[in-house]
Task: inverse folding
């Protein structure tokens, strides 16, 4: 659970960090399942380090990883930030190669639905080795709009819209150790620089419960433009765990599953 101050931190800056949320024993289970899923997706082939490997519906594939989604340390925090009956969108995992330039989910328009991204890095990372960087407060529409020139760098890393490289943009570096978790708005401008090939990361994307006609239509529109987001995995739809089932029940109610 977050304190009132931590919730205020999230509202103001767009993220909040929870240090050592998971024990070394739990992280060992994460390593096992993470590597197992990634190898399974590669059909047993070794990771070459030439390009990023990404896997969709990641946590949905292993019972232990699924259990993290309903764990109070994640579930209750998301509930604090989004309210009850929130909507599970997707989990994904990555073995990253190269830099990830600055990007955000929106261009400064007001969000139709609030959402949270729960991000976990199984490996220790620093600002020099590819940790997540965020620009505090950049989830707020007015500030977000001022940062839109950074999009130029996403297409061409040599661009200098503010006279600096992507790595030189003033930011908070989420230097993490295994067991740390960051809860962030997807609207927050974020990036990563300087990491070695194959650094591991997985995250959960969760939206607030769509209750208005506009919000429901927004979900339907986003779903049409995606092959994975808002398509709940059968392991969640068929789960006998109340929290897991509850996070995807809205799709059933809306005729989307």
Result:
């Amino acid at each position: 659970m977050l304190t009132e101050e931590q919730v205020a931190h999230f509202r103001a800056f767009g993220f909040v960090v929870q240090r050592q949320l998971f024990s070394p024993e739990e992280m060992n289970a994460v390593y096992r399942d993470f590597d197992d899923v990634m190898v399974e997706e590669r059909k047993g082939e070794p990771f070459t380090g030439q390009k990023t490997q990404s896997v969709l519906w990641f946590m949905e594939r292993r019972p232990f990883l699924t259990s993290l989604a309903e764990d109070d340390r994640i579930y209750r925090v998301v509930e604090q930030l989004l309210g009850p009956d929130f909507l599970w969108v997707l989990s994904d995992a990555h073995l990253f190669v190269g830099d990830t330039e600055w990007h955000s989910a929106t261009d400064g328009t007001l969000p139709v639905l609030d959402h949270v991204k729960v991000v976990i890095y199984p490996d220790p990372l620093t600002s020099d080795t590819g940790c997540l960087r965020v620009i505090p407060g950049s989830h707020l529409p007015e500030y977000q709009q001022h940062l839109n020139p950074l999009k130029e760098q996403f297409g061409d890393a040599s661009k200098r819209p503010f006279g600096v490289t992507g790595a030189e943009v003033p930011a908070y570096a989420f230097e993490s150790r295994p067991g740390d978790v960051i809860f962030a708005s997807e609207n927050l401008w974020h990036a990563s620089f300087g990491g070695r090939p194959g650094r591991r990361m997985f995250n959960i994307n969760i939206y607030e419960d769509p209750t208005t006609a506009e919000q429901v239509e927004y979900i339907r529109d986003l779903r049409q433009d995606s092959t994975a987001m808002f398509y709940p995995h059968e392991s969640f739809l068929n789960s006998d765990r109340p929290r897991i089932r509850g996070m995807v029940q809205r799709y059933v109610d809306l005729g989307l599953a």
